[in-house]
Amino acid sequence: MRTPLSTLLAGALLAGLGLTLGPSPATATPSAPTGSENATPAAINGRLKVCGVKLCNQYGKPIQLRGMSSHGLQWYSQCLTDGSLDALAGDWNADVLRISLYVQEGGYETDPRGFTDRVHELIEMATARGMYALVDWHQLTPGDPNHNLERAKTFFTEIAQRHRGKTNLLYDIANEPNGVSWSRIKSYAEQLIPVVRAQAPDTPILVGTHGWGSLGISDGRDETDVVNDPVRASNIMYTFHFYAASHGEEYLSALDRASDRIPVFVTEFGTQEASGDGPNDFDRAQRYLDLMGRKQISWVNWNFSDDHRTGAVFTTGTCDANGPWTGTAPLKPAGVWIRDRIRTPDSFPTG
Ligand code: IDC
User: Which residues, 6+ apart, have CB-to-CB distance to 180 below 8 Å?
Assistant: First the structure.
């Protein structure tokens, strides 16, 4: 059970009055008191839509999704099991699972059929647990997404077609463009988006920004490249990634400025260094979380695996042993910290 029934009933009454319960934006606006088994983030919020610079639920109310990204499926698929996803949905109370499909480095390009099938399967597993499924086309090396445009068209056409009846999908079409200008990324997005929309006209699409998803900051540029030359498509958001121990004030203020002007979704962040390893900077990570809570910026943390690095939430060996998955016992410090912040409702009022 995700939400006590009394909270649900109260929430439904408030929702009817156009009010929300404050604490947990993504779960605070029930459509009807349908019983606790249906009180999942995806059931409550339904089809999402970009509204101004925010992400809104089926009632047009701004919400914030919080959840976890998988590690690369080619390496850590064994961390995504019935048990681990039960824990993510039921113990962590996550709203969203990001399914990280690397294209290179032993990923999609080596076995398009096998990886596409695995993504289908993971979408079904997230859906069965009432979570949103954020499908991440994890291009990284090479950094120009155009390199994989034809592959992306093939992949997303099948994904969008197969899951067109679902209301819980989000597509992240370029993980971290790097070494490439914003105008080239925009051109990629404008070629791919119509292909996806032909199958799934209403699914929000997330577009990676230049400089490894830094809104250009890591390239010595900034968000004005995007603000002044946005992708010509509706129902899209732009992504921002940060690693708290590496990315300081300049990145924080870019996120703050940009999110006033364009819809931003933080599809990946870590509490440690950009390597996904090294010491955690929980203080700075909390500043980002406070900002994102205040502005209802959705976020997804990297990563739900037992990789040896500090940014993988589970201790090494957890996945091969198939758990245990719940509670804090199997978690590294970053895992304990992020689980708390996914579980615990924001203290910020919504709306
Ligand atoms: C890292 C993985 C590591 C892998 C490396 C290269 O943890 O196992 O060898 O990628 O593929 C990102 C990327 C994400 C990175 C992560 C941590 O999106 O793929 O994962 N990171 O370095 N951007 C900033 C950090």
Answer: 143, 144, 145, 146, 210
CATH number of 47-347: 3.20.20.80
Residue from 243, 275, 280 whose mutation best tests the ligand 1 pocket (most atoms within 8 A of CB): 275
| Ligand 1 pocket, residues with Cβ under 6 angstroms | 105, 140, 175-176, 212, 241, 243, 268, 274-276, 302, 307, 309
176 is catalytic: yes
d(CA 115, CA 112): 5
For a pocket test of ligand 1, which of 138, 302, 304, 306 has the largest count of ligand atoms closer than 8 A to its C-beta? 302
Give residue 276 CA to ligand 1 midpoint distance, Å: 6
Q: Which two tokens stand for residue 108?
A: 């999609």
Question: pTM of the predicted model, to two decimals?
Answer: 0.91
Cβ 89 vs Cβ 130: under 8 Å: yes
DSSP state of 148: G
Task: Please give the single-letter amino acid code of residue 68.
Answer: M
10 Å Cβ neighbour count for 307?
20
Question: Would you mind telling me the total number of residues written for the chain in this entry?
Answer: 351
What's the token pair of residue 234? 């509706």
Task: Look at strands 66-69 and 96-102 and give their pairing.
Answer: parallel
Mean pLDDT by 10 residues, the chain (351 residues): 38 38 40 57 98 98 98 98 98 98 98 99 98 99 98 98 98 98 98 98 98 98 98 98 98 98 98 98 98 98 98 98 98 98 69 38
**Catalytic (active site) residue 150:** no
Residue among 105, 190, 223, 268 flagged as catalytic: 268
In this prediction, residue 38 carries a pLDDT of: 67
**Which pLDDT value is given to residue 15?**
42
Domain boundaries, the chain: 47-347
Nearest atom, ligand 1, residue 270 CA: 25
